[in-house]
Amino acid sequence: MQLETLRQSLLATGARDCHVDRVLRAWTQGKPLDAGPRSQPAEHYLPLALRNALAALDAQLSGLARMRSEHPGDDGSSRLLVDLADGQMAECVLLPRDGVCVSTQIGCAVGCTFCMTGRDGLLRQVSSGEMVAQVVLARHLRTVRRVVFMGMGEPSHNIDNVLEAIDLLGTAGAIGHKNLVFSTVGDRRVFERLPQERVKPALAISLHTTRADLRAELLPKASRIDPAELVELAEHYARTTGYPIQYQWTLIDGVNDSEAEMDGIVRLLTGKYAIMNLIPYNTTAALSYRRPPLERVTALAHYLHARGIRTTVRNSAGQDVDGGCGQLRARSLDPEASPTSRKVMLKQLKAGVR
Length: 354
Ligand code: SAH
Ligand code: SF4
Description:
Blueprint: H1 3-11, H2 17-28, H3 48-62, E1 66-72, E2 78-83, E3 89-95, E4 99-101, E5 105-107, E6 122-125, H4 128-141, E7 146-149, H5 159-170, E8 180-184, H6 188-193, E9 202-206, H7 212-218, H8 227-241, E10 245-251, H9 259-269, E11 274-280, H10 294-306, E12 311-313, H11 342-351
Parallel strand pairs: 4-7, 7-8, 8-9, 9-10, 10-11, 11-12
Antiparallel strand pairs: 1-2, 2-3, 3-4, 5-6
Helix pairs in contact: 4-5
The structure holds S-adenosyl-L-homocysteine and iron/sulfur cluster (SF4).
Residues 108, 110-112, 115, 117-118, 153-154, 185 line the site of iron/sulfur cluster.
């Protein structure tokens, strides 16, 4: 269900915009649909026709994303397998520190050679209603202050729906705009559309290599934007929004963990408003890629840090629970990892992998 369709069907009961907004606010915040001012009964603030429609609406909205199973990890994250109304299954991860990672597509057409989601291509788009419903499901379980669009799928390939969900979450859903994170391999549509939005999300760019040839190999169907240009486009967005770009670099042993690659990062990111997140590859039985040894990961982080690149090392959330649907790609983008919190990053570096 698209959010616009939902809004129109509520307006069709004769309700006014302010009433519809109230219901959407209640839903996105994980409250009963008729929630309103605590001291007043619903008949004081919602018209009868709308109140009469709420039971059916509630059933419909609950059906958008139902929990199939929960797999708690020992790092405070918990992976949810979620049933959608047509029987498809999406992955959604509760992250430590009040975050949730949602899926934007079932499957993915980019076909990154190291990612399990890309293996079967794109099965279908996830609707804007289904994205918000994943957040609502999470809000029934925990406090949610941060939503990262980093689950299954490539958000730029479903950009209308993703931006519609972001808009509702950043308004009625009361999530801070920089706590909505759009994670992408990079696509010109992203740089055209995001700056025009009233809710401008933070941007995470999955870079993985600074070599255009290797990038084309590893991310076969990603837009062919040269890494240097990608960084320039992203930098412009960071300056527009006032929040840094979170670069993601899935570190794969012998593939993109060389000193030459690190020098490439230094060349591209020096002076940029950016944070480099090194993510040791989460090994999956089905693929032959491996993560580099821990000492190497730590050494690379130090190497970048010593050259002035803000760097964090992070593990996929809930790595210990990667049973079930076969992969886990949730990232814990730490809201504290802002450029000002050097102390936090130094602590992370000292601790090695978090
Ligand atoms: N399509 C978007 C968002 C979903 S993938 C994107 O690529 O950014 C989110 C992140 O998970 C990407 O950075 C991807 O490189 C990473 N990822 C995928 N499989 C992984 C694995 N097995 N181990 C570690 N990171 C992985
Ligand atoms: Fe798609 Fe992201 Fe996986 Fe690449 S890493 S196949 S873009 S979900």
